[in-house]
Amino acid sequence: MNESQNKYYVNGKVFKCNLKEPILLDLIQSFLNNNDSSEFNIAVAVNDVLIEKYRWKKKKICVDDKIEIVAPFFGG
Amino acid sequence: MLADDLLIDGIKFKSRLIMGTALYPNVSILNKSLIASETQIITLAIRRLNLASKESFLNQLTKKFKLLPNTAGCYTKKEAVLTAELARETLETNWIKLELINDQEMLLPDPIELYDCCMELKKKKFCIFAYCSDDPVLCKRLEDIGCEVVMPLISPIGSGLGVRNEHNLEIIRKMCTGKIFVDAGIGKPSDASKIMELGFDGVLLNSSVARSLDPVTMAEAMKLAVISGRKGFESGLIEKRKNAMGSTSFSGKISNF
Predict the structure, then answer these.
(1) CA–CA distances in Å: residue A33 to residues A28, B51, B86, B127, B226
(2) Stated pTM of the model
(3) Which CATH fold topology does A4-70 show?
(4) ipTM
(5) Which domains does chain B have, with CATH numbers?
(6) Nearest C-alpha of chain B: how many angstroms from A39?
(7) Contact criterion met (CB below 8 Å) for B67 and B44
């Protein structure tokens, strides 16, 4: 696996990681530095499509996929 | 007096004041302000996760509220629908305050994109709180397609200009039989009171409290203003007259000098 295969766009920035399998859950855990995702109340979209939490384990991701990891924030 | 509870999506609320959570000087003042306001519903945004934040937004709240996520900053239907879906996923609520703006300077709602988006979100079973302009026909159309709450502005977001077109608000209240809140433009407690006197069902505000010199006291003032205006409306305001109508009887007056 070369370096370019591990390049994704997470929250608008290039994110590189070495995943054994290109699975969304693994990428999320890598992004969160292996912290428990439930602590952050996150939701995730891949290429502008919501991926529900129960699908993270099976969702395959591709190089250059655009991934959004969001959470509640102060707002009016 | 009969209980004057507000019913939204089948849930009863005592407070008719929805509070935003942005722009407070710090989290402690935010929490104290929310408590002082006695609000039961708060708004929040959905934003990219910031790993530098030590604690999640929800963990910083000291009291439990019904959460109303918004689509603040969205310009397109596509963006707003995805934001709503992300909000539902993370917060496990189908409530969404739909904001679709048209420009950066005035942050005015885009009525055409908004209407289209409401149709889409209805299909996806969302409970919509539609932030819109103070156009009576648009408000009525949003109500007719099933928005749970229609929320016209009274002036631009964060402007504090208060009621600019009272006549429109009167027409909106007359035309719409469902729940109408005012969102955006409130500057002072008397604005909130005025809106409630017009028979609106509630008020959503943020900047007028968060940016005041003393947000906690202002939050309490807004709470009292909403209650005062509502009680005034419920009591039946007297009709306006062009001429005076004395309250003290002339009968029994000592004499005419």
Answers:
(1) 9, 9, 22, 35, 46
(2) 0.92
(3) Ubiquitin-like (UB roll) (3.10.20)
(4) 0.92
(5) 6-235 (3.20.20.70)
(6) 7
(7) yes
